[in-house]
Write a structure and sequence with these properties.
The protein is elongated and about 85 Å long. The chain is α/β, with parallel strands linked by helices. The protein has helices at 4-15, 57-66, 89-102, 120-129, 170-186, 190-193, 214-219, 227-246, 250-281, 288-298, 369-376, 387-401, 404-413, 428-433, 474-482; strands at 24-26, 41-46, 71-75, 110-116, 136-140, 157-162, 196-199, 308-315, 324-328, 331-341, 361-367, 416-424, 437-441, 444-453, 466-471. The chain is built from 15 helices and 15 strands. The longest helix is centred in the middle third of the chain and has 32 residues, at 250-281. Strands 8, 9, 10, 11, 12, 13, 14 and 15 form an eight-stranded mixed sheet that branches. InterPro entries: AB_hydrolase_fold. Keywords: Signal.
Length: 492
């Protein structure tokens, strides 16, 4: 890890060579009291790249207005840097600190580091390296990296993200919240010390007065809540966070505890459908979704469906065993094997919140209805399902699992979803190498499954009567409903 001493040494050397640039300081509002220990409080805010620091003035002033103590806000000028890195970030922060002192901030002040959007992970790495120089980290439209668990983070962390932020998707926020929920079981105070806030109906530009750069604007979603209202809400949560970390004033500390608990529960409720379908796709190396698909594929209904039990295992490669059926204790046990796949050729960053978080397909190896019927003898198929039918079921499951607000929003955009007939391959190898087709044309989503079937033939042995499908993961269908279908530019 990069150490504090190295950061400070670099900052001191470079500061001797260059002056502070165009960093802007918002001085404390008149009439505000100092903290009980006489120290000042400051937020150093790093903008979203290509967003003018001037666009954060209203947000900074809103925090100062709502926070009861003297508060400086330093807006970092990153416009002179081609890329902000761990090499130049310490210098920029040191420059801002120097400017704050020149504006009257006392030494030993409580400094909070805030950042908006894409530099969130970088700011988190910096804060981890020098936790004794900061009192907390504030992530706006950003979340901690997946490799970092909030319970082990050396500082309190405030996370505020819009529900319909297209740059940091709610599906990515859901993963962070799920990890945090597990940690809260061991440390219930974590939800108050490091609160996570989802602003209902808000997008990525809620913290700025102007517009996002064109590429981010296109990647974002149209807000449903007036920016002025949402910005004030975000500023209020930020003011409460400062007060809770500093443990003063007492009335703010108590209010913060109450509001952060409510916000955490609201975030859990908002993301519960996403997490439910993520676990349906894969959980503990099993897939409930493939288990359901195999039961549907059997064509059995009512009491006849009770003659089969299904276990569906998830493997990490396609080189596993074929599906099989074992008769035991009066029940036919079907064992299926699947692979949950993310396409490597999409160039997906490991932790990019702007990209789809759900897997791209489930390569499900199942038994065909003929094989099952042959084993059951007297069973009668009611339906003959195709892979297309199973993918339609995935979408409808996602739609009906989504929150009412998400369904209404999705319906309002009038995005069509077309399920095309299956493409049936003539070999298992071709099936394995051909992706589920998930394409957008003229604001409509087209889904085409890839199928592979083998005939009922004793000479094929365990390879007889197989039915393979490239399935649409239900959490990917959910992500389409929650995010992709309502982006300003659906090509992202």
């Amino acid at each position: 890890m990069v150490t504090r001493s190295l950061f400070l040494a670099v900052a001191v050397v470079v500061l001797a060579l260059r002056t502070h640039g165009y960093h802007e300081t918002l001085d404390p509002l008149p009439g505000k009291a100092r903290s009980l220990n006489g120290h000042d409080v400051a937020i150093v805010l790093i903008p979203e790249p290509e967003v003018s620091l001037v666009d954060y003035k209203d947000f900074g002033r809103a925090i100062q207005l709502l926070f009861p103590l003297r508060l400086y806000v330093s807006l970092v000028d990153i416009s002179s840097e081609n890329t902000v890195t761990l090499d130049n970030l310490p210098i920029l922060i040191a420059e801002c600190t120097k400017t704050l002192h020149e504006s009257g901030m006392h030494s030993g002040s409580a400094v909070f580091l805030a950042t908006h959007g894409q530099l969130g992970h970088l700011a988190a790495d910096y804060a981890r390296a020098v936790p004794d120089t900061l009192r907390g980290l504030i992530l706006l439209g950003a979340v901690l990296p997946k490799r970092v668990n909030v319970i082990a983070f050396p500082l309190p962390v405030l996370t505020i993200v819009g529900e319909i932020d297209g740059v940091t998707r709610i599906t990515r926020v859901s993963e962070t919240l799920h990890a945090m929920t597990r940690s809260v079981k061991f440390d219930p105070e974590l939800a108050i010390q490091s609160p996570l806030i989802i602003l209902e109906g808000s997008n990525h530009d809620v913290f700025i007065t102007g517009s996002l750069p064109f590429s981010l604007y296109q990647q974002d979603i149209e807000a449903e809540v007036p920016k002025r209202v949402a910005m004030e809400t975000a500023a209020n949560f930020t003011a409460l966070f400062l007060a809770h970390v500093l443990q003063e004033p007492e009335v703010f500390v108590k209010t913060a505890a109450t509001e952060f608990k409510k916000a955490f529960e609201a975030a859990q409720n908002m993301t519960a459908p996403i997490e439910l379908l993520r676990e349906a796709t894969i959980n503990n190396l099993k897939s409930y979704w493939v288990k359901s698909a195999q039961k549907w594929l059997s064509g059995l209904t009512g009491k006849q469906s009770a003659q089969i039990e299904v276990d569906s295992y998830v493997e990490k490669s396609q080189d596993g065993l074929p599906p099989t059926m074992i008769y035991e204790h009066g029940v036919n046990h079907i064992v299926t094997f699947s692979e949950v796949i993310r396409y490597a050729d999409k160039g997906k960053a490991e932790d990019d919140g702007s990209l789809p978080q759900a897997p791209d397909e489930i390569a499900a190896k199942m038994l065909g209805p003929e094989r099952i019927q042959a084993a059951l003898k007297n069973a009668t198929r009611t339906y003959n399902y195709t892979c297309r039918d199973l993918n339609y079921a995935s979408f409808m499951t996602a739609y009906h699992t989504a929150t009412e607000r998400a369904r209404i929003r999705f319906d309002g955009y009038h995005r069509g979803v077309i399920f095309q007939p299956d493409i049936v391959t003539n070999s298992e190898a071709l099936w394995e190498s051909t992706h589920l087709k998930f394409t957008v044309h003229a604001s409509k989503l087209y889904v085409t499954s890839i199928a592979y079937k083998t005939p009922m033939d004793d000479d094929l042995g365990v390879e007889s009567g197989l039915f393979f499908c490239k399935l649409l993961p239900p959490d990917r269908a959910m992500e389409w409903i929650y995010v992709d279908s309502i982006l300003r530019d659906m090509s992202f």
